[in-house]
Predict the structure.
Amino acid sequence: MEQHLQEIIHYDYIIFSDTEAGPQFIHEQVAWWQQWQKACGNTTPFLITHHSSMECGLEEMLMGYIHTDYQRFQMPVYCSTLDP
């Protein structure tokens, strides 16, 4: 994120996927990045998605998937280039 704000790398969007299961400091950090983005004059869209069906923390959810035969799992992917 810092490299994006310094214009070293480029992102089309900044996305935070809020599971509402993370600790408070994560939300404080996202708010800090939003403020820092504005202070830098960066206008990249900063999107926050919400998914509130998670009943426990992220770590518990991951362990639950690991110990089952669940065949689908979604994880965010971060990349600066796309190699076909």
